[in-house]
């Protein structure tokens, strides 16, 4: 059997559509049997694995997938050994701190001793440590913006894109921790044969990105 490069892509979520679109713009056509978790490109030695976003860095680190399209925010949070090869210019967002809109904010001291809800505990902890802040971290896996409203926390640390989820929940953004976008990541030890396929893919992706600028 000839070698195929395995790429992990979000199974569901905001990056999936644009991830498949960029492959298509690279001239790569994927046979997409609906609900299949594995698919093959027809005209390029590529196999697509549809995985949960938060699992992707670990799968790439462990070589289950050779490469992936994933948000930088997830790469930073998961602290796995993967190499970021190329930022892809879509799914731009930021990881930010937000508090109830009527609270007075007078700097980072605000967070001292406060209870903060997040799905990004490692990134938040690093930020708090850097700023010598002692806050309590409460981890929830989604709908983080509801936490202050239901008395679960004083503030939050979560992704912001348009800002509409913050607005709808009566919160305001006060500090950005990390800016993020979709990126192509790679396992640190891929075979020479796979590296050749990857070089071809990267060449095409960079041409597509250059054409957009
Ligand atoms: C994401 C993210 C924010 C929101 C940001 O949540 O966690 O809540 O989108 O986007 P906005 O600034 O454009 O409103 P998502 O809708 O994916 O749901 P989840 O957090 O429950 O997974
Ligand atoms: Mg959310």
From TrEMBL:
Q: Which UniProt keywords apply?
A: Amino-acid biosynthesis, ATP-binding, Cytoplasm, Glycosyltransferase, Histidine biosynthesis, Magnesium, Metal-binding, Nucleotide-binding, Transferase
Q: Which GO terms describe its molecular function?
A: ATP binding; ATP phosphoribosyltransferase activity; magnesium ion binding
Cite a single GO BP annotation.
Answer: L-histidine biosynthetic process
**Modulation of this protein's activity:** Feedback inhibited by histidine.
Q: Does the keyword Transport apply?
A: no
Q: Please give the catalytic activity noted in the UniProt record.
A: 1-(5-phospho-beta-D-ribosyl)-ATP + diphosphate = 5-phospho-alpha-D-ribose 1-diphosphate + ATP
Q: In which pathway does it act?
A: Amino-acid biosynthesis; L-histidine biosynthesis; L-histidine from 5-phospho-alpha-D-ribose 1-diphosphate: step 1/9
Organism superkingdom:
Bacteria
Q: Where in the cell is it found?
A: Cytoplasm
- The ATP phosphoribosyltransferase catalytic domain extends over 52-206
Q: Can you name a GO cellular component term?
A: cytoplasm
Per its UniProt record, the required cofactor names are:
Mg(2+)
Function of the molecule: Catalyzes the condensation of ATP and 5-phosphoribose 1-diphosphate to form N'-(5'-phosphoribosyl)-ATP (PR-ATP). Has a crucial role in the pathway because the rate of histidine biosynthesis seems to be controlled primarily by regulation of HisG enzymatic activity.
- What family is this protein classified in? Belongs to the ATP phosphoribosyltransferase family. Long subfamily.
Q: Which named protein is this?
A: ATP phosphoribosyltransferase
- Protein source organism: Ancylomarina euxinus
